[in-house]
Specification:
alpha/beta, Rossmann fold, 4 helices, ATP binding, magnesium, cytoplasm, T6A_TsaE
Length: 155
Amino acid sequence: MNVQPLFIRCSDLTQLDAVAQQLLQLGGSVPVWLLHGDMGAGKTTLIKQLCERLGVRGTVQSPTFSIVNEYDAGKNGLIYHFDFYRIKNESEAYDLGADEYLDSGAYCFIEWPEKIESLWPETYFSVTIQSERDGSRSIRAMIEAGSLTGMNDVN
C-alpha cells in the first residue's frame, strides 16, 4: 500500500491546534512520532497542541535539558516528549533508556530524531515542519512502515 504524504500549510503557529487534530486523525494509531524541522520551526508548539488534544492538562514544555518529559494524558495513558538536540551520540540516548520508551506502546513525540536514527522503530509517523519566508509553515506527514507509506493529500 503506497499512499501520498499529507501536506498542510498554515499561515502561522496559532493554526497548529487544527493541524494537530488532522495529524492525530491520520497518524494517531502510531505511537512513535518523529518531528523534523529547524530550530524555531514549531515542533514544540505542535507537540503542546498534540498533548492537549490527547488529554494532557499540565504544562507541556520542551525537555531541552532533561531530554525527556513525561505527561499524563488520562485515558490516553502516558506521553513521552523527547528533545535530542543536546545529545552528542546515540549511546547517550541508550543510556537514558530511549529504546525502552520507544518500545512501550505509549505516544513518544521526538524532536531532533535524526540524532537517534538507529533507534527508530520499523513503524513511525514522520512530521516535517518547514518555516517559509512569509512566516507560514509547510508540514509534511507520513506513516513510515517498512515498505508501507500511509497518508492522503490534504490542502
